[in-house]
Amino acid sequence: MKTLLAALILLLPIHAIAGPLERPTGPVVLTISGNVVHTNADGVAEFDLAMLERLQGRAATMETPWTDGSTAFEGPLLAAVLEAAGASGALLKVKALNDYAAVVPIEDATTIETMLATRMNGEIMSVRDKGPLFLIYPFDNRPDLYNEKYFSRSVWQIKEIEVRD
Amino acid sequence: MNSRLAHSNDAVRRAGRATRYLLLIALALMVVLAGLFGYLSLRQSAMEDSIREDALWAVYQLDRETRTLGKLLGDSDATVQEVSLRYDILYSRLSILSNARYAPYFELSSTFHQHRQHVRDVVLGLEKDFNALATVGAFSEEQRERILKELNGLAVTTGEFLTFTNAVMSASRAEARERIMYLQRLAAAAVLALLLTIGLLVYNLARQVRSLKQASSELEATANELSEAYKLADAGNRAKSEFMATISHEIRTPLNAILGMAELLSRGELAPDERRQIDVIASSGNTLLEIINEILDFAKLEHGSLSGEHVAFDPQELVTTCVRMLEPKAREQGNEILVSVTGLAPGDMRVSDPTLVRRVLINLLSNAVKFTENGKVKLALTGTEDRLRFEVVDTGIGIAADSQSLLFQPFSQVDGSISRRFGGTGLGLAISKRICEELGGKIGLESVQGIGSRFWFEVPVKSAPARASQPEAGPVRDVPSLNVLVVEDQEFNREVAGRFLQLLGQEVTFAKDGVEGVKLATENDFDLILMDMQMPVMDGIEATRTLRASGRSVPIVAMTANASDRDRRACMEAGMDGFEAKPIRIEQLRNLILSHGSRAKPETPNERSSRASELIEAIGEDGYRKLLEMFTDEVVVLLKAVHAALNDKDSDRLDRALHSLKGAALNMGLVDVAESAESLRKRSLDEVDIAQIQALIDRSINPVAA
Q: Which of B26, B77, B265, B359 could form a disulfide with B197 if both were Cys (CB 3.0 to 4.6 A apart)?
């Protein structure tokens, strides 16, 4: 899994890794703050939906405690997003629109194929449908993650990720 | 003994049964426990708890978002975007409430339903207002008042919803815990029961082991008792056998006298009436003897003292002697005995126990002869390298099929009328069967009533080198006159033996016991000693040993009623030369004297041939003596010729001289001299040989001449 992830990271588009991050053209859906290098705003890296969907991602179908039956999720890998922002640190504070926040260790991004889902069943998620972003762990191929520890880290209606040491 | 054993057997069985039950119970308890733990682990699965918690959390969020939206609406500084976003967030909570996973909890009571329905109604009712907000830009005061009122009402509902949910969840949690506790208690009880069962099992196994130990020691004790009992029984059986042996001996001794006297009487001149009476005495006595011998044999077989020997013998000779023995009886019955032999060349030898084989064959033959009248008895001997098969086929009365199986059982005859008509103990075939088994062979029969019977037996043998076939025996020689010592304690037996021997022309001396016998034998030169086995003071074995120890080589022949194999061996070991079972017949004595007489003292005058008797009969004792004198002169001449021929080394002349000597000796009936001369012809000879033949001639002539 780790090697696969490393390989994926190596394959990230050049522009996503090098140089300052482009400016979002659409509405900003995610802000990465804290220890980020590739900033495109006031000390933070901002992303619109198009920028996120251009990043290395995954699509998977799985069951979650919050959805009825099998649900298809699709979106960039958390690791790809952090890489694009030039983020480095140990902890991620993932904040939701309603000010709910969960602390996620950076290993959840580097060692697990965790994604920032932008689409549920192929549709962009509105706020009313737990959008715009939903942190989805790979419950489909890692059944061992299917427990409260990861349920509480599965934040929805994400608006910001703060990268800390 | 038996009840004790049965008791401990019972204990072992009971313990075994209890162990089985306990094992079953333990097994059942284990299944229950496994089920309980399986159920517990299912119930314990994190999902249930987490879903419950999530449901509560979802209701809490709903309440919180309702209040936040209400507060934001009341805040004049709040932007349209903020208000709109808050409504969207509140809206997103609706779908969580309708999540199927929470349904079991939300549907626990109608209150949940009502609350949820109310929340849904209010939130969806506001949707139009908030959807329009983006385009309108702001709520009218009146509109805001209304929404605020609605939201306040909703806040009351969500607050109640929250408390109610919390209460229900707590109850459900408590209930779940209670259920888990119950299951745990149940599991604990099952574990306790299982432990108890295992404890009982261990206890029971220990008890079982104890019972087994006890049973085994009791078994051992029983085995010891049985072996004691067996020893006692065996001792009893031994005593019985000894008794039978003694009794039979005691019976046979007087019987010996009866038969002997009958035989003596029958040799005299008798009126036909008297002869018939004597015959009855003799045949009854013989039958009695036969019965006693059979009973004695059977006792020995019962006792297991029959031990097969391994001796080389000529099966055809055995057949011939057996047939010869039964021929007189067969003639009496008007039967003819026919013998056929296949697979054996004359002189072929086999190794087995000839005594036992003979006994079986005689039994089968005598049965065949006994139960056949004016018919044929065929004896067929078939020999291979490792097996001898004897078949005796008769044309007698036969045996019914259903009686055939009884035949080989002791004391059974086909029916009572048989024993009345034919006599016998019914032991013969039982003995024969035992003997065949002892020899590793088998015995059987086929028979049709009224047609005849075919009895057969087979014994395994080993092959032995063939004996050079013996020349046909010459004419029966007359019995030489010997000096015979009879050592016998019974007066009538002495009488019988004495009469017989005198009849055969023997010089007889008597001794009443071993001591006297030894004394007489030491002081005199006897040609033959007939020795009884059982005597007071010194028995026959002891006397023989003493004589042999003192260097006496005189032939000693045992005469005894103890006709067992063991006795026979004892006699041979003591140094005896022969063994004759009592009662002694005159024929037996004649053969004895013939065989031992010539062998006994080769240096003494040899017996006269029939030629000599012939001469004496023809010309009288005196004439014969004159002839002998002439012969002596002749011998002097002939021996001189031999000397001369020897000195001249003229073999032709020597041969002629010896031939003449042989002819002269034969003429006089001096067979030994003739044989000696003949043997000298065949090899180169010297002075010593001539001296020897001279001595032989002197010895042959002198007693007669003297």
A: B26
End-to-end CA distance of chain B: 85
Q: How many CB atoms lie within 10 A of CB A150?
A: 19
The pLDDT of residue A14: 43
**Which residue of A69, A97, A147 is in closest CB contact with B89?**
A97
Cβ distance of B61 and A98 shorter than 8 Å: yes
B97-131 pLDDT, tens digit each = 776 566 666 666 677 778 888 888 888 888 888 88
B100 in contact with A at a CB cutoff of 8 Å?
A: yes
pLDDT of the residue at B475 = 40
Which residues in A lie closer than 8 A to residue B89 (C-beta atoms)? Answer: 97-98, 127, 157
Interface test with A, best of B85, B89, B95, B99 (most A CBs within 10 A): B89
Residue B319's alpha-carbon distances to B313, B366, B555, in angstroms, are: 11, 13, 29
Q: Are B558 and B540 in contact (CB under 8 A)?
A: yes
Nearest CA in chain A to B100: A68
Domain limits, chain B: 46-173, 306-464, 483-600, 610-705
* Closest in A65, A67, A129 to B54, CB measured: A65
The class (CATH top level) of B46-173 is mainly alpha
Task: Give B82 to chain A, closest Cα distance, Å.
Answer: 10
Local confidence band at B417 (pLDDT 50, 70, 90 cut-offs): low
B363: amino acid identity, one letter: N
* Percent of chain A that is helix, strand, coil (3-state, to 5): 25, 35, 40
Extract the tokens encoding B118: 């109310």
Give the start-to-end residue ranges of the domains of chain A: 2-164
Domain B483-600: which CATH class? Answer: alpha beta
3-class DSSP state of B261: helix
Look up residue B521 and give its two tokens. Answer: 């034998």
Could you write out the three-class secondary structure of B310-378?
CEEECHHHHHHHHHHHHHHHHHHCCCEEEEEEECCCCCCEEEECHHHHHHHHHHHHHHHHHCCCCCEEE
Cβ distance of B89 and A157 shorter than 8 Å = yes
| Intrachain domains B483-600 and B610-705 with the same fold | no
Domain covering A2-164, topology: Sulfite Oxidase; Chain A, domain 2 (3.90.420)
Q: Does B92 touch chain A (CB under 8 A)?
A: yes
Angstrom distance (rounded) from CA B130 to CA B85: 10
The architecture of the domain spanning B610-705 is Up-down Bundle (1.20)
Place of tokens 């001997």: B381
What's the complex ipTM? Answer: 0.76
Is there a contact between B16 and B212 (Cβ–Cβ < 8 Å)? no
* Cβ under 8 Å to A: B residues 41-80: 46, 50-51, 53-54, 61, 64-65, 68
Q: Give the H/E segment covering residue B381.
A: strand B376-383
Extract the tokens encoding A47. 């992303």
* 3-class DSSP assignment, residue B445: strand
In this structure, the strands spanning A158-164 and B387-394 are unpaired
Hey, what CATH class is B306-464 in? alpha beta
| Alpha-carbon span B119 to B225, nearest angstrom | 99
